[in-house]
Amino acid sequence: MNVDKGYVDAPVPDDVTDLKEAILKLKKEKDAIIMAHYYQKGEIQDIADFIGDSLALAQIAARTEAKIIVMCGVHFMGETAKILCPDKKVIIPDLNAGCSLADSCPADEYEKFIRERPGHTVISYVNTTARVKSLTDILVTSGNALKIVESLSEDEKIIFGPDRNLGEYISSMTGRTMAIWDGACHVHERFSLEKIMELKKANPEAKLLVHPECKKPLQLIADKVGSTAVLLKYAVESEAGSFIVATESGIIHELQKQCPEKTFIPAPPADSTCGCNDCSFMKLNTLQKLYNCLFYELPEIVVDEQLMESARRPIERMLELSKNIGR
Ligand code: 13P
Ligand code: SF4
Predict the structure, then answer these.
(1) Rounded to the nearest whole angstrom, what is the distance from the C-alpha of residue 24 to the centroid of ligand 2?
(2) 148 phi, psi to nearest 5 deg
(3) What is the CA radius of gyration of the chain?
(4) What is the C-alpha to C-alpha distance for residues 81 and 69, in angstroms, rounded to an integer?
(5) Residue 326 confidence (pLDDT) above 70
(6) Has residue 169 got a pLDDT over 70?
(7) Smaller CB count within 10 Å for the chain: N or C?
(8) Atom of ligand 2 nearest to the CA of 102
(9) pLDDT of 32
């Protein structure tokens, strides 16, 4: 089967009347596990075996006994799963699901940045390519970065990449000076502070939830800054009845599911009349592509053997240091 487009471009067979049912049946037959990030379309989250933040997805991938991992997320998430499970088949509905943050850190330039700063411990965010991971000492996600940096000795010199907003957040929370790579996520950087201030004025009771990939002024006015899983937990446990959500709007699906009585207001981006802020990469995965992906077991995430070896070490260090966090 041809995957030149980055996904299997085939019609769903005529005898398939219920796509969701057909996917669940295929999944069982093939001993596959469907994992989905909170930014996936709601219909994909609804049929996943696990939904979670980047940390939980890595933790679950490391433990699964399924033969096939279907990663409904973006490419680096599938790559991380493959590196952790080299003997399993890891497939993704659409290989074009990239990440602007990972793209903001080309491996050759990151290597030069590291070489120019000898004696530093290299901490990199999970939103990176396998090559960037192979240049890293410890990998982090937004769910464990704070704890991992805090666990390092005071005199350890740190390079942090590639997200400058998360890096500055960690630096301000820990008081650690870090050499921070100048990268960012285009989705989280485009929230409008002005529009959010207006929303806060109109909804004075609402708590503001902010992902640390957002710019600092937004972090400073947040009631809670954290990974998608941390924001979800905060909303579930909070006594507040309404929340302004400054992260990709896909998470509102699970927020609303877990808190049906609460109101979630998506924070608007600056450059759009639409109230939501979607990651176009995350939204490339559809139910039809997921069906074809499972049926043909394509497209597959393939990583060079040697690269997998060197990229696995920082991921395993992260998992070791995150035993009490996440799943
Ligand atoms: P988390 O779900 O780990 O917070 O990550 C957010 C993100 O941008 C994933 O691409
Ligand atoms: Fe990457 Fe941002 Fe999309 Fe997450 S939301 S996958 S960081 S581009």
Answers:
(1) 27
(2) -70, -45
(3) 20
(4) 8
(5) no
(6) yes
(7) N
(8) 1
(9) 98
